[in-house]
Automatic annotation (TrEMBL):
<keyword id="KW-0862">Zinc</keyword>
<feature type="active site" description="Proton acceptor">
    <location>
        <position position="92"/>
    </location>
</feature>
<feature type="domain" description="tRNA-guanine(15) transglycosylase-like">
    <location>
        <begin position="14"/>
        <end position="367"/>
    </location>
</feature>
<feature type="binding site">
    <location>
        <position position="146"/>
    </location>
    <ligand>
        <name>substrate</name>
    </ligand>
</feature>
<protein>
    <recommendedName>
        <fullName>Queuine tRNA-ribosyltransferase</fullName>
        <ecNumber>2.4.2.29</ecNumber>
    </recommendedName>
</protein>
<dbReference type="GO" id="GO:0008479">
    <property type="term" value="F:tRNA-guanosine(34) queuine transglycosylase activity"/>
</dbReference>
<comment type="subunit">
    <text>Homodimer. Within each dimer, one monomer is responsible for RNA recognition and catalysis, while the other monomer binds to the replacement base PreQ1.</text>
</comment>
<keyword id="KW-0808">Transferase</keyword>
<feature type="binding site">
    <location>
        <position position="189"/>
    </location>
    <ligand>
        <name>substrate</name>
    </ligand>
</feature>
<dbReference type="InterPro" id="IPR002616">
    <property type="entry name" value="tRNA_ribo_trans-like"/>
</dbReference>
<keyword id="KW-0479">Metal-binding</keyword>
<dbReference type="InterPro" id="IPR036511">
    <property type="entry name" value="TGT-like_sf"/>
</dbReference>
<dbReference type="Pfam" id="PF01702">
    <property type="entry name" value="TGT"/>
</dbReference>
<feature type="binding site">
    <location>
        <position position="216"/>
    </location>
    <ligand>
        <name>substrate</name>
    </ligand>
</feature>
<dbReference type="InterPro" id="IPR004803">
    <property type="entry name" value="TGT"/>
</dbReference>
<keyword id="KW-0819">tRNA processing</keyword>
<feature type="binding site">
    <location>
        <position position="309"/>
    </location>
    <ligand>
        <name>Zn(2+)</name>
    </ligand>
</feature>
Length: 375
């Protein structure tokens, strides 16, 4: 079993290329993690997810706690065996649900009581409980339990929320069962305020986690504001630890995040969009529902080697979506995840070659051209 560790292999400007060693295999960064909230990446077999080039996926503590239950997963051999994904798994702690399910929860100093969105039953999450659940799931990377600060928030509200999360981070670190090849990440909070983000980084680095996440972004603040916060937050984090921007994002968000020193990303965008007839391509988002695709024999993206682009036409994909066939979600999700992984590999290669600025400029030029209409 490998020890958990991160090695920075190259840096070009602030963009970084590295390698994360874990108990369940290595992860080359920058990396995008497909979201498998409830133990599955929607519309994809695990083998299909791997075929896109993904090396690590994400699960969710809150959802798996409710169904099927962490103890059941543990009894069945852990989440890797349960969902047939032998590679690394990062589990979100449930902190995002503290914000997203605000109408179904009560928060206090000790933790959070939720009314289950499934059946209304009362369930309790504390820093120690979240950490234990992630251990039962056999998460390769455990996330600290935090309160994801809503946007917008006043300085006073953001400070109160962040300091609660920092107290919880200490409790999570104490509860974390240290095993070779496993790691735990702290989560930087503080809203959009530079002084609060700095205070959060200082508190977390004093606790000393194996990695650090930037939370509380992509919650409605918009890309310019997100990038502004990243500009002062990412460089403040330790250079020898992985940096994870939570819940981000669309392709141009990923390029901008890597440009600012982020190593790891996750987002539901490629899978959710795939289930709703949208595809991400080098020339932007394509809505395959649009009638202009119904007689188009071309592939979705001629430069893409995924099954959707290699074997099927836009006309066929349009037909599948309009007919509400399950295959539409499968093919478009596969395409989107493939595109995301190709984008990450392209950025990594550019960083290693010292050519990231050229890569980012070419990416933006092509994106600005937009999708090419049929002749």
């Amino acid at each position: 079993m490998s020890a958990f560790g991160f090695r920075l292999e190259a840096q070009d400007g602030r963009a970084r290329a590295g390698r994360l060693e874990t108990a369940h295999g290595p992860v080359e960064t920058p990396v995008f993690m497909p979201v498998g909230t409830a133990g599955t990446v929607k519309a994809m077999l695990p083998e299909s997810v791997k075929a896109t080039g993904a090396s690590i996926i994400l699960g969710n503590t809150y959802h798996l706690m409710l169904r099927p239950g962490a103890e059941r997963v543990a009894a069945l051999g852990g989440l890797h065996r349960f969902m047939n994904w032998p590679g690394p798994i990062l589990t979100d702690s449930g902190g995002f649900q503290v914000m997203s399910l605000a109408g179904l929860r009560k928060l206090d100093e000790d933790g959070v009581t939720f009314a289950s969105h499934i059946d209304g039953a009362k369930v309790r999450l504390t820093p120690e409980g979240s950490t234990e659940i992630q251990d039962l799931l056999d998460a390769t990377i455990t996330m600290a339990f935090d309160e994801c600060t809503e946007y917008p928030a006043s300085h006073e509200a953001a400070a109160r929320s962040m300091r609660l999360s920092m107290r919880w981070a200490e409790r999570c670190r104490t509860a974390f069962r240290r095993r070779e090849g496993y790691g735990q990440f702290g989560i930087v909070q503080g809203g959009t305020f530079e002084d609060l983000r700095g205070e959060s980084v200082e508190a977390l680095t004093a606790i000393d986690f194996e990695g650090y996440a930037i939370g509380g972004l992509a919650v409605g603040e918009g890309q310019p504001e997100m990038f502004r916060v990243l500009d002062f937050t990412a460089p403040a984090l330790p250079a020898d630890r992985p940096r994870y921007l939570m819940g981000v994002g669309k392709p141009d968000d990923l390029v901008g995040g890597v440009e600012r020193g982020v190593d790891m990303f996750d987002c539901v965008a490629p899978t959710r969009s795939g289930r709703n007839g949208q595809a991400f391509t080098r020339r932007g988002t394509v809505n395959i529902r649009n009638s202009r695709h119904r007689d188009d024999p071309r592939p979705l993206d001629e430069a893409c080697g995924c099954p959707a682009c290699r074997d099927y036409s836009r006309a066929y994909l349009h037909h599948l979506v309009k007919a509400k066939e399950i295959l539409a979600a499968m093919l478009l999700t596969w395409h989107n995840l493939h595109y995301y992984q190709e984008l990450m590999r392209g950025m990594r290669a550019a960083i290693l070659a010292g050519a990231f600025a050229d890569f980012a400029a070419a990416f933006r030029r092509e994106l600005a051209q937009g999708d090419i209409a049929p002749l």
